[in-house]
Design goal:
alpha+beta, Aminopeptidase, Alpha-Beta Plaits, 2 domains, 4-stranded antiparallel beta sheet, 12 helices, elongated
């Protein structure tokens, strides 16, 4: 890849000033996004908003429904069980330049609109879908993860235009679903044919370049009990499915320490304090308080090092569940079943990205006066799809979010402003700039 395009300092200053000038509007738009309760299966209203915002900027808008049958045979597909895709709409806005900048390269901005459940509303200071601003913080589910970053991509384009320029290469603005549970929304963009020389994902991991991300596997452990009246349980009649399921958990959880012990052989994670997490996210089971439960389900999320084969990790999980089941007389004769659903994601390391790293590094230093740091993450993002399956760099750099997935999630608005400036300047350096109103190629 060639070096990033230089920018006139006066043009940089104009772009930065344009972000500042429109930032109140950007905050209001982000609040409108947060007001859309876009949990899984309810993403359509915020996608209506995104579609309108893209069309209002003159982008060519492509909106389509994600269909499992279109992507199920693609690398990176995550299995889905009992998932409703009726409202799983992706929206992509395409900017195609009338004139090309010499050396300009194409770019994808990618962000997700889906958010995780809120938890109990009574524990939030204010309702989770009523965005509240207090000082430099905006509170609300999805305010940080990741509607503020996604909104910033459109306002970054606005800043270039307000400064009198447009990108000198194609830019695609991808607003996707399913990031929180499968990644199938971004995969559907690949299936649709969208590709570029670089992708930029403004996940709220802070103004740090993500060097690597873990993979993810979701699975369910199904345990069948022997239901009886609860009064007979003291006579060892029946088998409590919930209690039996919980017997399995310590052995599954122990995989976390065993896998983290391998980090010395898994660069760039050798110095990360605790890269792999094994999380019991949900327990389901029981039908009646005075009945011995007939079934129970453990819903588990595990991290995976980049380079580890997902089939090998699944085999380790299956072996561990069998091992723990054999320790119990009932479970050894009524073995649990494992169901793979949701995330089935490989880990990703950002490599062969010298040119976009240099561009982002120059932008970061211009805005902060400091060198850009790169760190591995114990989280996963959709950036993997671009690096693993399209062979182009997937950069992750964004705002600062506190308590993502938690009560009173909040995003630092100063960091949102910074991230928007960084995306605008990166777009200018990567794509090149042409004056607004430049004639189409071939015109006199």
């Amino acid at each position: 890849m060639t070096a990033p395009l230089p920018l006139d300092p006066a043009v940089e200053d104009a772009i930065v000033a344009a972000v500042d000038a429109a930032f109140d509007d950007q905050i209001r738009f982000t609040q409108a996004m947060v007001r859309c309760p876009s949990t899984r299966g309810q993403e359509h209203t915020v996608q209506d908003l995104m579609e309108s915002a893209m069309a209002g900027r003159g982008l060519d808008v492509d909106r389509w429904k994600v269909r499992v049958e279109d992507i199920k045979d693609m690398p990176g597909f995550a299995p889905v069980v009992d998932a409703d895709y009726a409202n799983a709409w992706n929206v992509v806005g395409a900017f195609r330049p009338k004139a090309r900048a010499e050396g300009g390269r194409s770019l994808i901005f990618n962000g997700h609109v889906d958010v995780v459940p809120t938890g109990p509303w009574e524990r939030w200071t204010t309702p989770p879908f009523e965005p509240r601003i207090e000082g430099k913080w905006m509170y609300g589910r999805g305010a940080g993860d990741m509607k503020s970053g996604l909104a910033g991509t459109l306002f970054a384009l606005d800043a270039l235009r307000a400064a009198g320029f447009e990108p000198g290469a194609p830019v695609w603005f991808q607003s996707v679903v399913e990031e929180e549970c499968t990644g199938n929304g971004t995969l559907a963009c690949l299936q649709r044919g969208y590709a570029a020389d670089c992708a930029f994902v403004p996940e709220p991991l802070g103004p740090v370049l993500m060097r690597a991300e873990v993979g993810l596997i979701w699975f369910r452990v199904h345990v069948d009990g022997d239901p009886q009246h609860a009064s007979a349980a003291f006579q060892d009649v029946g088998a409590n499915a919930i209690e039996k399921a919980l017997l399995l958990w310590p052995g599954i959880k122990a995989l976390e320490d065993e896998w983290n012990a391998r980090k010395g052989d898994r660069p760039p994670y050798e110095d990360h304090p605790h890269p792999i997490r094994v999380n019991l996210g949900e327990i389901e089971g029981g039908e009646w308080t005075s009945s011995v439960p007939a079934k129970a389900v453990l819903n588990v999320r595990v991290g995976v090092f980049p380079g580890d084969d997902l089939a090998d990790i699944r085999a380790e999980i299956e072996a561990r569940v069998r091992e723990e089941a054999r320790k119990d007389p009932y479970l050894s004769n009524t073995p649990p079943r494992i169901e793979w659903h949701g995330h089935m994601a490989e880990g990703y390391v950002l490599e062969n990205a010298e040119a976009p790293e240099a561009a982002l590094g120059a932008v970061h230093e211009r805005l902060t006066g400091e060198a850009l740091r790169a760190e591995p993450s114990s989280a996963a993002t959709d950036a993997r799809f671009f690096g693993l399956y399209q062979g182009v760099p997937g950069l992750v750099y964004g705002p600062v979010c506190e308590r993502p997935h938690g009560i009173d999630e909040r995003v630092d608005l100063d960091s949102v402003r910074h991230a928007t400036k960084a995306m605008a300047l990166f777009m200018a350096r990567w794509c090149g700039l042409v004056p607004t109103g430049a004639k189409e190629r071939g015109d006199a």
